[in-house]
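Is magnesium ion placement plausible here? Inputs below.
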Amino acid sequence: MAFIERLCIEDYRGISDLKIDGLKHVNLIIGDNNCGKTSVLEAIQLLRTSGNLANIYRVARQRDALSVSNANSIFDSFICMFPRNNDGEMRLGLNGICNGQEISFVLTGKRGRILLDAKELDGNRFKTAEIPEGEVEAESFEGDITMAYGKSRKNGHININQYSSITGTPSSDQDQLNIVYVSPYEHLRGNIINRILRNETYKQVCIKALQLFDPDIEDLMIFRSDIGNRPVEYIRHKKLGDMPVSTYGDGLKKVLAISNAIAQAAGGILLFDEVETSIHRKYYDDIFRFTIKACKSFNVQLFVTTHSIEAIDGILTTQDYERQESEEAICVCTLKREGNDTFSRVLSGREVHENREAFGFEVRL
Ligand SMILES: Nc1ncnc2c1ncn2[C@@H]1O[C@H](COP(=O)(O)OP(=O)(O)OP(=O)(O)O)[C@@H](O)[C@H]1O
Ligand SMILES: [Mg+2]
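Reply from A.M.:
I modeled the complex. Tokens:
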């Protein structure tokens, strides 16, 4: 199992020198809009330590990939990961303790301009329809990556320019840590049941969770479409028969996306950004109880961002805080942005729960 106990983000987007200590199996990252919650989840993904450049580009691209009309180049997305307020050398860096071992990721480099042979570039990447002759000048970045996990060290070199396209697909096989990110809108992308189907017992548990929304749901399956033999996800329903998952509501799809990601993250780390999106408040207690139980049985360390106090309470009530000796499984980390600085306040789940009960404590501030 992967377990991050401590995290220090030295430089990543708007965050510099943020320390979060005392992480637990379940970690709530909360705070105002723009305080850096999603940035923390992105930075953690750089710790996959595969040495695979495709992983860095995938993290760089994650936000942009949510927008269908996004026209940013991979170069622009990549450059935006570096803090804006630095002159000269650019740097991304984070470190921490994972499974009792030191872990770190550092990427440093310089921006510049290079000349490229126009013939070798993809014509679609030029702003004008006319492809220039000879050499074209391009913005570029050249740098070095150093990764460490315990005694294992990896170094890499990175060269990217404004005409680069992503080469290589990220392969989780090469990763030392299995880290899965779930965006607030992951459930709208499809492909959200394949991991659930691999384990019959888990599938039955997930169907029980779906029955909260509709007690007539009976089964989950994948059929091949007539067009192109592509996989299509279906739900078997007592009254409606077999219907594509797409015909169901977003709350139900979100629960499928959550369940699927838990199985995918087995033995690793799961990052849920805005876990509550699309789910009605009245289901929070049941869904979070299911989520935390499933993470425990799949040995998954969970990081969750949320804006919802009801979601925070729902997650805290999964614990038996009445039993004085129960071991703490939840860390609540509130982020605060002041100028160029990001601060964290870390409390235990028990502290937050007791103070919410006694004083209605507003932990998000
Ligand atoms: N390269 C960068 N340099 C400096 N600041 C940056 C950079 N990239 C993003 N930011 C800042 O980071 C903030 C956004 O951070 P992030 O998206 O992590 O916030 P969040 O807490 O997830 O917000 P929300 O709750 O709205 O989703 C913005 O204030 C933005 O200006
Ligand atoms: Mg966010």
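Short version: The pocket of magnesium ion (ligand 2) is lined by residues 37-38, 273 (CB under 6 Å).
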